[in-house]
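Narrative of accomplishments. A recurring question from our advisory board has been how the design workflow behaves on a single, concrete structure rather than in aggregate. To address it, we present the structure tokens for one chain from the evaluation set, followed by the sequence designed for it. No filtering or post-editing was applied between the two.
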């Protein structure tokens, strides 16, 4: 039986990025957070 290969940090980040890009709800939450951040910095 083969030993499972450990993923590198970069591979995990890419996988998470793909999942988030495919999830509309998660994208909307991220966009709202970024907008809030920008607005608070502008003040």
């Amino acid at each position: 039986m083969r030993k499972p290969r450990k993923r590198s940090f970069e591979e995990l980040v890419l996988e998470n990025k793909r999942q988030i890009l495919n999830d509309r709800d998660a994208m909307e939450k991220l966009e709202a957070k970024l907008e809030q951040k920008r607005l608070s910095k502008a003040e």
